[in-house]
Amino acid sequence: MTAADSMTQEETTLRITRDFKASPEKVYDAWTNPEMLVQWWGPEGMTTPECEMDVSAGGHWKTTMTSTKEGGAYTVSGIYKVLERPNRLCFSWGWINDGVRGHETDVDLTFEAIEGGTRMTMVQKVFADPEQTKNHDQGWSSSFNDLQRFVEA
Fold it and tell me: Where's the Activator of Hsp90 ATPase homologue 1/2-like C-terminal domain (predicted)?
């Protein structure tokens, strides 16, 4: 049995739910409009100087985030799989290191109208190991703080 065999789906699946005081349309658009996305994308303390988005089923997207403290650049890319404004958005996700795209996961977002706003649920899977799941949980949670500030402004 390998280490991968002993990992549970729970350990390699990330689920985050966040409520926003904004309409599902506004929250969805913050993910799919490049002018909006660059204003919140990435963990706190990061900026997104590079953003390419072909927002269509099968369309490619790519962003480069830079740290305002360390100055390092982090590039991630994927393909849009489902675009159902304002209810659901799905895309693939893979980091690019030294020109090589690494392990790929799928990100599935749902946007549910609730009293006073939107409940967004994000499920990202399947990570290569529990450490990647944990790291992405920290990164997304921080990014969603920026998203919350952006859509509720």
Answer: 21-151
